[in-house]
């Protein structure tokens, strides 16, 4: 360790301030800049943990004492510090879109990859890296399901509007005398409303690992959409569906360029 304790603790405090400032920058300003600051903080933490011997400036010689033991102690300390900070950084960045300041997908993806890479370099095992990315998994699955549901709702709402207009034209502001005809025109509107409600209710769930199948069942069993419209829907959304299924099963993007550039 650094022998002059006040120097060591001053540097350690500075390092921690850098890390937390990096988290702040990541969430509020720019992911890439914040990541650089966080990594710099980690590097300074490493510097404070070694026991340096004499350094001969002119000869450019340096002697490092107890290198192996110190290095392992440093890495263990760094892992213990890096994991919670990395989780906070990814979690806050993933959630910002829910606070009216959406984080661009490509920047969030870059942050997740950068943090994962840095953690691997200091020996963090894959299972722990996987845990700190749980909010990214959750909100990416949510956003993909939401995109699929949005496309489905556009189809259903369009039909519902037509059906409702037909009913209103038939009523024409007059008292209804033909109950059978009313039921014939109003029932399809109610069925469309029910299908729309079912899709919206999917997002009340906390686990999105099966939500895409719920959307699939609603579309495939829809009485509002015709067989041709169902086929057209799946043709138009096949790439999104494939990306969503792959992500849920593998916890990584199959074609990053597709999802990162998918319209919001």
Automatic annotation (TrEMBL):
The chain crosses the membrane at residues 6-27, 34-52. Keywords: Membrane, Transmembrane, Transmembrane helix. It comes from the Bacteria. This is Uncharacterized protein. The keyword Membrane applies.
